[in-house]
């Protein structure tokens, strides 16, 4: 991700996973400490993260913006 780039609800993104590249759709920007599937997400206004619905599993995950890459639809 380019520095300062933001993602928006509906953006199709990918990230590195243990089994190769994973793909999903941004559901929301997270700007406070929450849990996603039982895992703590230490997000803030200064350091947001994104809730993403994985295309393959249908499960929600959270990632920092620098871990994400925008994909073509």
Automatic annotation (TrEMBL):
Residues 10-68 form the Hypervirulence associated protein TUDOR domain. Gene3D superfamilies: 2.30.30.1060. Residues 1-12, 26-35, 48-73 have a biased composition (Basic and acidic residues). Residues 1-73 are annotated as: Disordered. It comes from the Bacteria. This is Hypervirulence associated protein TUDOR domain-containing protein. It comes from Polymorphospora rubra.
């Amino acid at each position: 991700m380019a520095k300062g780039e933001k993602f928006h609800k509906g953006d199709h993104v990918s990230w590195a996973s243990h089994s190769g590249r994973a793909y999903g759709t941004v559901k929301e920007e997270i700007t406070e400490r929450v849990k996603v599937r039982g895992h703590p997400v230490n997000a803030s206004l200064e350091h947001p993260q994104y809730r993403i619905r994985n295309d393959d599993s249908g499960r929600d995950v959270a990632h920092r913006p620098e871990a994400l890459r925008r994909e073509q639809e």
